[in-house]
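Structure tokens please, single chain.
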Amino acid sequence: MINQLIVVDAGPYSLSEASIAGAGQRLAEIAQALSRRYTVRVIAQPASDTVDLGAAEVVAPGEDAARAIAAADAVMFFDTPDRGRVELAVTHRKLIIGECRAPIEHMSYPSVLACADPIGEHQRFLGTYRRLLQVAHHFLCRSQVERAALLSTLCAFGRTTPIDIARSWTLDHLISTVPVGFSQRGLEAADAAEPVHMADFLWTGGIWAFFEPLMLVEAMKILRDRGVDASAAFLHATPTEDTRSTIIEVGNAIDALELGDRVHLHTKPLALSERVRYVKAAQAYVCIARPGAENETGTRLRLRDTWLHGIPTIIDPHGISGDLVASENLGVVLREPSAESLADALQQVKSGAVGRPSRRMERLYENSMTVFTDWLDEELRGG
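Here you go.
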């Protein structure tokens, strides 16, 4: 192990087994992979059920976090970081790494739109994003699409110069692509888990306003009318400020269509160790979104499940995620998403007409982070 201290700041993301979401899981698994090579401290809210972080240790926000940043050789920030800790890393002249995506989806949050000044409320996210663009020495991206968008943004911010291009035509000294994937410990945990059937088809991520969860409910009615025996579940239907109205709408639709015996809203918090048992037993994952800027520019973290478990994803064509499913033969892309086309795809899965993709070991973080850790080693050596 290299004796350098890397501090990973979880920002607002929970690392509790019972409340971790996709961004938190990516962060935790990256910390796991880094802890095989460096000393790693993760700044996060303490929890009695903190997820596996490998050899990394949790540091509480506040004075302990400040001391960790002061002692760090490098500090990593992810989406929507804590602005105060960003400034602390700047003050201590630390090597700063940022996985920062433009806060596009935040503009659709009900909590933002309901404010008296939604533009001002969104500035909280936008201001921190801009600041990280200014001060980070290196950036992580989840896909080539996100990399391309970031390249243009860095140019507009004056962060790239002719000297940078002379150093690297591809600007690899500024940006590393670490695709959405899974860690070695995540793989081992998945293999050790016993499958438990909740439903044939799982909506595995959040129920956000820019998705189309009602389409799955309507597709299940069509399957019932066709006489197809099938079940579906929304795994993460615990209401939050920004998902409550959509979850209520989905629940009302289930009741109105009398689908309570076929479609389940899992409204209780779901532990990560329990979640993996349900996703392993599913026949397909469903993720249908509306056309929009967020889906054009971001890779959906829930694709991790397909790359890890080899279970097909049924998805819309709106953006990089649909392109990945099509190019890597990961499932079914609905070219014209509708309840009818989704029902057709679900029925194909039930009939065995949709093959299971293989596990993709190139998505293992210990493999895909090599270019980034080579850069980091060189920087820490003073190169």
